[in-house]
Every structure is written in C-alpha cells, then in structure tokens.
Design goal:
Blueprint: H1 17-20, H2 22-28, H3 37-102, H4 109-129, E1 132-134, E2 147-155, E3 164-169, E4 172-174, E5 177-180, E6 182-189
Parallel strand pairs: 2-6
Antiparallel strand pairs: 1-4, 3-6, 4-5
Helix pairs in contact: 3-4
C-alpha cells in the first residue's frame, strides 16, 4: 500500500523527564542524609560545657591545694609560737631555781623550802595553762584506770576502806586524756582488836 505524499510520517516522542534532561537524573537521586543543624549545635554546646567544667575543676583543685598549703604553714607558725612561749615559761622556772641556789648561803632552811614551794606552784600553774592538771586522788575511791596500787595498808577507819590513803607519785591529765597514772597506797579496813583488861578471865565454856 503506497503512502500519500501529503501524509506526515508518524513520530513517537518519549516525554519521560530523565530522557528530556540528563541533569534531572542527578536531581532525582536521594541525597545523603545530614544531621540537623540543631543537633550539631547542641553537641558543640555540650562539648564546650564539658571543657569548661573540666577547666573549673582543675582550677578548684589548684585553689584547694593552695589553701591546704597556706593552712599548714599557718598551723606550723602557730605551733612554733606556742612552743616558744612554753619554753620561755620553763626558762623562767630555771631563773627562779638559779636565784634560789645563789641565795642558799644567806637563807635558812625554811626560806629555801618556801622558795621551792613557790617554784613548784609556778610550774604547776604553767602546766595548767596548757591544759595539764594533776589528779587529786587522796581519800578518793581507788580507780585502776587512774592509779596503780603499789601497796595495801590496814586502816582502822572504815570510811577509808578501798580508798587512796597516800599518793606516792602524782597522776596527770591533759584535757580529757590521761598522761600518767598515779602510784598510790590504798587502805583496807581492819577493825582494831579490843584489848583485854588485866585480871579478867574468860568464862569457862
């Protein structure tokens, strides 16, 4: 069958967009998913906060170390000052004993005894000023935590039974701490035996 000269040839046009424009193929591809900018900003802020916290902790450590060092130095100075004051008190006692020895030739035994008593009182006062006190245990019930019994002596007074009747060596406390136990003698009650009158005879049993 012959085709007429006036008839146009049949044409097929492919209208799919990737055929019409090659660049559309690239646009149609799924892009790689990226983190949202909000998440990135939050992560950056968190990292910055952690860094600042770390720097702050390091600064606090340095300040605490400097404070401890300064406090230790101040305590050392204070202890040194207290030691010097205590030593000066002992030197005062030494001066008093030297004066007593120098005046011994012109002093009576009574004066020398009085000088020693005053020096002892001064020494005990110095000890008390730093918290050291002697324990007054005479005629007190015996306490093995405060005293060591070196002897037991008979007593005729029942009120002195198991009590300290003589202090051989003083005990001392420093504040609430026991420095040294005392050495004492304690009494043990023994009633006095009645003395039989002369000329009396026992009744026969």
């Amino acid at each position: 069958m012959s085709q007429s000269k006036d008839e146009k040839p049949f044409q097929i046009t492919d209208r799919r967009f990737w055929v019409q424009d090659d660049s559309a193929v690239e646009k149609a591809r799924v892009k790689k998913r990226q983190y949202p900018s909000v998440v990135e900003e939050l992560a950056a802020r968190t990292e910055l906060a952690e860094q600042r916290l770390k720097e702050k902790l390091q600064q606090l450590d340095k300040e605490n170390e400097a404070f401890r060092l300064r406090l230790s130095q101040e305590m050392d100075k204070r202890l040194q000052h207290e030691k010097i004051e205590l030593l000066n008190d002992f030197l005062e006692l030494v001066d008093n004993f030297e004066r007593a020895l120098q005046a011994q030739e012109n002093s009576s035994l009574k004066d020398l005894k009085e000088g020693l008593r005053l020096n002892l009182k001064l020494f005990l006062d110095k000890l008390q000023s730093i918290g050291i006190e002697s324990m007054d245990l005479l005629h007190q019930p015996f306490d093995p935590h405060e005293a060591e019994a070196v002897d037991i002596v008979p007593v005729e007074d029942a009120s002195l039974d198991q009590k300290v009747v003589e202090v051989l060596q003083r005990g001392y406390r420093w504040k609430d701490q026991l420095l040294r136990v005392a050495k004492v003698r304690i009494g043990q009650f023994r009633p006095k035996k009645p003395v039989a009158s002369e000329g009396t005879t026992e009744a026969p049993s």
